[in-house]
Amino acid sequence: MKKLHITSLFLMFGLCLMSFHLSAQNPPVVKNAKTGAVIKLGPMPVAVFPVKNPNGTPIASKTFNFPGGAVRNISLYKTPLSKPFALRKGAVVNIQDQDPTSTCVNLPINAESGNFEMANFAPTDFIFPGSVVDGMSIPSGEYRQIAAPRNPMAMAISLTNGGVAPVSAVVNTPNVASVREAINQLTAQANFSQGVEVGETRIETVYSSEDVALVMDVHARSLMGSIGSSVSYTTDANKLTLVKIIRQRYYSVDVVPPAISQDFFADPNTAISPNWTYISSVKYGRIGILVMTFESKSQQIEASLETKLRGLIGSVSGSIDSEIANKFKSINVQTFQFGGPPMNIAGGSMASLAAVQEIFQRFDNWTKKPVNNPQPIAYSLRFVQYENGGPAIASLQSTLNYNARRCVEFRPKLEVTLKEIKCIRADDGDGGSGEDIYCMLTSKAFTGDGVQRVNALFNQPEVVLNLKDCATRSINTGGSYLVPNATRLYDIPSDDRYFRVTIGGDIDEDDNCGVTNTGSDDEYNDEGGVRTQRTIEYKDIGTNLTTVVFDHKSGNSHIQQVWTLRKVYQ
Description:
This protein is mostly beta strands.
């Protein structure tokens, strides 16, 4: 009597790289309608603040259409003092028609935003405390000033870092020249002492010019803006663009509102439009922007590398660890500034990590330099016409719809199942009944290069199949045995160009029945040994089941193994 000994194993080998992930920022989580897979998107633009303001009154709106298909609507709202905004971060994402079969997909983004305070990235004449602007012109970015003669206006200065300054000043005839002169006189006095504020720092990954505009919080001006259109970004899988913005406020100038709205103007009979607004507060300081596009030697940028690059651009020392050094190919650097002394930083492509570190150090040194050439970097608006005893808050709310490249946080897994063992023919050739073959199945999986097997992924206990009567399970000729618990899931390396699956089995025969163990049951002999296996390229495996059948023939015996493989999203 002969025993048919099948050792079934599947080997997985190739480049063993980390799975692709994105930096953890609690991005929105949605479910794909086609596959049922849960997808985590990230990172979303951090300058997105959906507004819940049921009591606000819309004053004016403007719609912008951009060549790339983006559509933005900006509206000016009036909010009574007793009903402040409730702000929350987030974004509305609809991916019902997307199929996440690749690492990155293009997704329709709908972002709503609302701000008390508008960022300013370009000095303009209308940005001065007390400037009266027609609210109807704000959504379009025109900011038409109202030229009616003004009454004297009081201003108050507030400092950072415990500085000392005159509390207030009065401007007799408020206009851009007189207000700036008054501020210059206040800051030039001997008792004006101010240090450099640490400031607000924001670091984000960007994939499009719309992302740049949102990250930079550009609301009142055009979507692309002078800065938004200047920042270089990339959608290549082996490149990553990070933007670092630091805002440093030196001081703020706030307008002291008069007792009644008519006191804004020299003529008490001035007909005040309910749409008129005034700039109630201006922050002066500087803004520095550092843009870094990292190019990796690898085909893609993995999660761990992105995390370290974000730490790199956020650090002061610009320390380079081994993973960055090993994956480094080049870094392109751009710098922008508004206010402050000249940076004197030459950007461009850096092929040396030492050059990159020097750029980071110079940027950090610039943020520590003394006060010099402060510019209006942000401002707030209120309405001239009073409500509930004071000037109502003016805010800009906007919606932005565009297609953005986003990457899923997970990769598909490979599902491998040894489904069943079929007995086509069992005959050891000794003239018996033909159902006297014994089949021992041992399933194993390994990672490695196919030669040296390492890192066993699982080791399933032996399944003894008796084709006659020597063991607990039997398969009659023409029957089959469904293998229990024989499905395994495997993570796929992020670089799957060389990833492949090898499955199959070994057949060896001996004359030991296996019921009484003599120590030779599990020993393969050299007589009639047969190995049957097949290598399958990962790229040829889809989301539908791929069935692979192996025929094991030895003498007059014929046993089949049935395997299934597929990609699954969880």
